[in-house]
Design goal:
111 residues, alpha+beta, Alpha-Beta Plaits, two-stranded antiparallel ribbon, 4 strands, globular
């Protein structure tokens, strides 16, 4: 719960410009990709991942998590630019906005 916003906040991947998770991965299972609209996405290859957890430890938000069945790291990949979580949210509390808009909002709220 965020007392400043008086709302709950979800922890999600920020698809960083310089992702620590990408730089720490010993098998290069994390990589950058571009969506058709030019949005840069940080993705995880479940075929390459060895489940060591380095990405989670390196991420400032501890976003990558282990899939309990596949035993590999998984994280949000924005569903190729059409996030299922946004479409499924019954209260429309989630929005998918350009990164610049999200960053401007965070700067406004947190300074």
């Amino acid at each position: 719960f965020n007392p400043v916003l008086k709302a709950f906040e979800a922890a999600y991947c920020h698809h960083c410009d310089e992702p620590y998770c990408l730089n720490i991965c010993p098998v290069n299972a994390i990589y950058k990709d571009k969506l058709p609209d030019g949005t840069v996405v940080v993705r995880t290859s479940t075929l390459k991942c060895i489940g060591c957890g380095s990405c989670r430890l390196a991420c400032p938000l501890s976003i990558p998590h282990e899939d309990p069945v596949m035993r590999v790291a998984v994280k949000c990949d924005l569903c190729d630019g059409d996030p299922e979580c946004v479409k499924a949210c019954p209260t429309q509390a989630l929005r998918f906005v350009p990164r610049s808009e999200a960053l401007n909002f965070l700067k406004k709220v947190y300074g």
